[in-house]
Design a protein that fits this description.
homodimer; mainly alpha; Arc Repressor Mutant, subunit A; 2 domains; three-stranded antiparallel β-sheet; 59% helix; DNA-binding
Chain lengths: 182, 182
Amino acid sequence: MHRELLLLGLLRQQDMHGYQLNEFIDQALSACSDLKRPTAYFLLDKMAAAGWIKEKRADTSKRPVRRVFTLTAAGEAAFQRLLRENLSAWLPATFPGDMGLAFADALPSTEAAALLTERRTALRAALEAMQKVPDHGGTLQWVIEHQARHLAAELDWLDSRLAALQAHPTTGKPWRPSTSKA
Amino acid sequence: MHRELLLLGLLRQQDMHGYQLNEFIDQALSACSDLKRPTAYFLLDKMAAAGWIKEKRADTSKRPVRRVFTLTAAGEAAFQRLLRENLSAWLPATFPGDMGLAFADALPSTEAAALLTERRTALRAALEAMQKVPDHGGTLQWVIEHQARHLAAELDWLDSRLAALQAHPTTGKPWRPSTSKA
DNA sequence: TTTTCCATGTAACTCGTTACATGATTTC
DNA sequence: GAAATCATGTAACGAGTTACATGGAAAA
């Protein structure tokens, strides 16, 4: 649903064609969405069929004939609905890196520490990259701040883990999946 | 990849059949994975075909004939590889709730505040639910702590946003997607 | 005896991605 | 004239989910 919200939100502010949308998402919104080109075209077609947006073919002087999309009244209504839905709900983030953590005690703690240090390096790089994203103002900036907070929390957590690993290296005694009945 | 890691990790500690795996994941690991039943069966078949696990049909006294899975040497190697891969990399979390934030300035700030307050309530509920998850010990506990930290950071951030919204209610001037060329 | 639990599976579908294909236009 | 850019699309695939189907055993 949040992909539709993204496209509607952009088109609401300004008529755009597909290529333009993709470019902007890639550049300015890479932190906040990973929408791919074919997916965007697919969704645009779908929303056009649903009557949320309408397209007009423009600029015959330009070759592949740009399809410029405009929000309809129905599209504006859908945007309002999706926006409220998204803002009011809390959707938990998923951390793919957690799976490794759960089984980290399968390794000697020195090796776990070494691997997590690698992870820390990658994390720092991501943090620095984020600080170079240009400010687009408005609540778009909220997203950047939001992510920055989480990255900071992540770094904190990693450091505390690493410190604990070095303070008292555990001897790798893994937990066991204790189901109620053996 | 992290789904395979999960199944391998569990089977490494103890032979189990599909139903058992699903049950455990649902109960103890709901915070850390959303692996569904049919997906688990599918992956088990795939990993059996790849030679990572082997099944033995057990307990003829019980009806649907349990398929008990055991890790092979190749499976152990795969587990080691996947674990190291996962621990050493940093995979960014995705926040589906961010999309609404980006367009929050489409609403009057009082309404945005009201909606975010709803979100806050849901978040608090999630936090309390997490504190009731039983302790399974080992680094499985790391996952719980990790998520708890992020939930706390999220709550912090939400509160700071809400405070800011109430301090100086903005007048809804949305940002615009400024591509380099108009 | 009827319901619930155990334990399996499969078919159809959605969503999203990768990779490929086209063709004109500006730039070197 | 070759290469990069603009702008579109499509085909094929993969992963994952929903919903459905089966049947015996234990419990009510």
